[in-house]
């Protein structure tokens, strides 16, 4: 195991550390407790070939039943907060208030929140993490219609009412870009609307949790307009939820609210090329700036309005712009990787979001070398410097907002032979987090970026969207072949346990782990029914 070289005492006393999951990825219990179907349930059941190995989230890591065990993991590891999402359809099975409120769903999240607080862990709650109610998709096309704004706002208000007395950190929508791009341009996420095969020449810009090696080409929908329509409605839904929270709940509950955006950093393919430098800027504008500019300034980036006509990229009215402007108390930032970008002067016969930026991206530089170490997931190349540059840009361009790194992590494929013990060795994940944390500290110390917290993705191996259970992002291994879905801390979990101590400690090595009894590897005092069942380990 890698030495620590950095620990939590290197950050300010108020700096927080957490880890994260999302509802569809870990909860399971898809047909239990009154939960209704989401668009992910629908796709996995009716279009199973869209997910590698025909996997789905019906059971996932079964956190619905094992949440107390997960909370004990969080406590033993020493994290300050747990970022999780609320399943919209577990609260509102039909997506709308008039379709009925599910009391069992409310009770489940009350139980989880109370269990976290009883163990000294803050809940950090996301309202929407990809799992849009299928009922709203069937009724009016979900985010293709402005009706979604009122329905999302009603769902958010219900959550603020029931949970806001204890939840002090809210995220409206997680990675809206992923929804717009994968759901309505590339067609790999539900509702699987998107591009012609010609557009997939630009798929390198969408290498985020998508099986880009085997893209599922879609012919339905309009990739030239629908991604922009969906983004517009997601932004308005976000702004309305923030307005409700600020006007009706914030002063009494004392919390804060934000949005989580994902960003890939782009370096110019040719460092000497002005065209490539501009292309790198456009690539960022058409992904991150597409959302960050509206919630900060009330309008889209100029590079987008210059290139995409208003009949496809509808501008915001003065009233809409006023609601959007400043509609976050903090920015949640998901960062994983970086790419090179280069200018693409091609004039395409059909308009598409995937080609509108005039920028193509690649992970391989002109010297034939990747931008960073390639990982097992294929789309992640380890490039901590991208986080540094991104944070500095956000400070300068967006008035130094408060930031929480809401996801940062890397996948492993586990041992090739499926051996659990060998799968616990994940030095690449330790290096990844260590180097990104060192880079984050440099950005804070040298440039005074206002980062308030860091979130490791993920607490558990989970359903990783289009790649199913192949990519394991967890710092804790989940044995999906075990009826108990046993959890085992990986080396990275032990690294975090040491990192989160208030002062430096002697680092454990892989050889130290080899001499540990199973009980020591699973953290002192951590005893659960699932753990007791692991006699075969």
TrEMBL record:
<dbReference type="GO" id="GO:0008422">
    <property type="term" value="F:beta-glucosidase activity"/>
</dbReference>
<dbReference type="InterPro" id="IPR018120">
    <property type="entry name" value="Glyco_hydro_1_AS"/>
</dbReference>
<feature type="active site" description="Nucleophile">
    <location>
        <position position="407"/>
    </location>
</feature>
<dbReference type="GO" id="GO:0009251">
    <property type="term" value="P:glucan catabolic process"/>
</dbReference>
<keyword id="KW-0326">Glycosidase</keyword>
<dbReference type="InterPro" id="IPR033132">
    <property type="entry name" value="GH_1_N_CS"/>
</dbReference>
<comment type="pathway">
    <text>Alkaloid biosynthesis.</text>
</comment>
<keyword id="KW-0017">Alkaloid metabolism</keyword>
<dbReference type="GO" id="GO:0005829">
    <property type="term" value="C:cytosol"/>
</dbReference>
<dbReference type="InterPro" id="IPR001360">
    <property type="entry name" value="Glyco_hydro_1"/>
</dbReference>
<comment type="similarity">
    <text>Belongs to the glycosyl hydrolase 1 family.</text>
</comment>
<protein>
    <recommendedName>
        <fullName>Beta-glucosidase</fullName>
    </recommendedName>
</protein>
<dbReference type="Pfam" id="PF00232">
    <property type="entry name" value="Glyco_hydro_1"/>
</dbReference>
<dbReference type="InterPro" id="IPR017853">
    <property type="entry name" value="GH"/>
</dbReference>
<keyword id="KW-0963">Cytoplasm</keyword>
<dbReference type="GO" id="GO:0033075">
    <property type="term" value="P:isoquinoline alkaloid biosynthetic process"/>
</dbReference>
<keyword id="KW-0378">Hydrolase</keyword>
């Amino acid at each position: 195991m890698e030495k620590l070289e950095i620990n939590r005492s290197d950050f300010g006393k108020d700096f927080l550390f957490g880890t994260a999951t999302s509802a569809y990825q870990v909860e399971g219990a898809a047909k239990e407790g009154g939960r209704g179907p989401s668009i992910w349930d629908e796709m996995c059941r009716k279009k199973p070939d869209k997910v590698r190995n025909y996997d789905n989230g019906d059971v996932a890591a079964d956190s619905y039943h094992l949440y107390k065990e997960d909370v004990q993991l969080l406590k033993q590891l020493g994290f300050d907060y747990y970022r999780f999402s609320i399943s919209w359809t577990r609260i509102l099975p039909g997506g709308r208030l008039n379709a009925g409120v599910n009391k069992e769903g409310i009770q489940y999240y009350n139980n989880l929140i109370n269990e976290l607080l009883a163990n000294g862990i803050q809940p950090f709650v996301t309202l929407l993490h990809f799992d849009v109610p299928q009922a709203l998709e069937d009724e009016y096309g979900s985010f293709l219609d402005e009706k979604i704004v009122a329905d999302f706002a009603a769902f958010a208000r219900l959550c603020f009412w029931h949970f806001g007395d204890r939840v002090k950190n809210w995220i409206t929508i997680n990675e809206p870009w992923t929804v717009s791009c994968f759901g309505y341009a590339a067609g790999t996420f539900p509702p699987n609307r998107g591009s012609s095969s010609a557009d997939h020449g630009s798929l390198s810009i969408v290498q985020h949790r998508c099986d880009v090696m085997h893209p599922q080409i879609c012919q339905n929908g309009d990739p030239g307009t629908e991604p922009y329509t969906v983004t517009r409605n997601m932004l308005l839904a976000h702004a309305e939820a923030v307005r409700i929270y600020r006007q009706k709940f914030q002063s009494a509950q004392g919390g804060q609210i934000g949005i989580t955006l994902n960003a890939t950093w782009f370096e110019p393919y040719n460092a000497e090329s002005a065209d490539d430098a501009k292309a790198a800027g456009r690539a960022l504008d058409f992904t991150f700036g597409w959302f960050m500019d509206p919630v900060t300034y009330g309008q889209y980036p100029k590079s987008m309005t210059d290139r995409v006509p208003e009949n496809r990229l509808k501008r915001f009215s003065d009233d809409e712009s006023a609601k959007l402007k400043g509609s976050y108390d903090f920015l949640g930032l998901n960062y994983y990787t970086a790419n090179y970008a280069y200018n693409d002067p091609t004039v395409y016969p059909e308009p598409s979001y995937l080609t509108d930026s005039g920028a193509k991206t690649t992970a391989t530089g002109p010297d034939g070398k990747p931008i960073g170490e390639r990982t097992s997931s294929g789309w992640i190349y380890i490039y901590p410097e991208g986080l540094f540059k991104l944070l500095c840009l956000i400070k300068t361009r967006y008035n130094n907002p408060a930031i929480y790194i809401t996801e940062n992590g890397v996948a492993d494929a586990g041992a090739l032979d499926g051996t659990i013990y060998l799968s616990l060795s994940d030095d690449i994940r330790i290096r990844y987090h260590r180097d990104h944390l060192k880079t984050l500290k440099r950005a804070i110390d040298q440039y005074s970026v206002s980062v308030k917290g860091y979130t490791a993705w993920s607490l558990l191996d989970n359903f990783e969207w289009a790649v199913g259970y192949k990519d394991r992002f967890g710092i804790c291994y989940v044995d999906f072949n075990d009826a108990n879905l046993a959890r085992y801390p990986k080396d990275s979990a032990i690294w975090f346990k040491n990192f989160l101590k208030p002062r430096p400690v002697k680092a454990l090595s892989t050889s130290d782990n080899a001499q540990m009894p199973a009980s020591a590897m699973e953290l002192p005092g951590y005893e659960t029914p699932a753990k007791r069942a692991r006699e075969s380990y």
